[in-house]
Amino acid sequence: MASQLSGSSTSNPSQIGKQKSKAYLSSVAIQSDATKYRQKYKELKRRVREMEKENDQLQIVSLKIKQNIQRLQLERAILYERLESETSSSPSTKPTQQSNHPTPSSPSKTAPETEYDIGLELENLT
């Protein structure tokens, strides 16, 4: 029992094999491990660069989306103001405004009268 605790037992072959493998590591094996680690490092570095590039592209897309949201919020505010001014105006002015706009059955190429009309034309172009 005392010999097992001291670690000098030669009856266990697995311990002997492990000690020999550590003792007899050649420089070729060490170089082989170093080469594997270098290749792994290069692969990981390449993957990090790809992820950073993809992240940059997603950031650009995100910024464009945020700008579109701000533009649409501004357009909505303008439309709400116009709607409010239209509803507060007298009913006698509404028929004249409706007659200025072409009907869907007879489209014509006239200059847009409001920013809203300009926005619609821009949306139709895209």
UniProtKB/TrEMBL annotation:
Chain residue ranges for the region called Disordered:
1-24, 84-126
Ranges where the INO80 complex subunit F domain occurs: 37-83
One GO cellular component this record assigns the protein to is: nucleus
Q: Which UniProt keywords apply?
A: Coiled coil, Nucleus
Does this UniProt record's set of keywords contain NAD? no
Instruction: Look up the domain of life of the source.
Output: Eukaryota
Q: Where is the composition biased (Low complexity)?
A: 86-99
One short Pfam name that applies is INO80F
Q: What is this protein called?
A: INO80 complex subunit F domain-containing protein
Question: What is the originating organism of this protein?
Answer: Malassezia psittaci
